[in-house]
Amino acid sequence: MELLKLKIQYPERFSLTEELSFKSELYVIPKAKGLGIIGLAELVISIFLSKEIKNRNGKPASLVQLARAFEYVFNCNFGSIYDKQAEVYNRKSCNLTKSLDFLKGSLERGRKINLLKQNEKE
Question: How much is the pTM?
Answer without folding.
Answer: 0.76
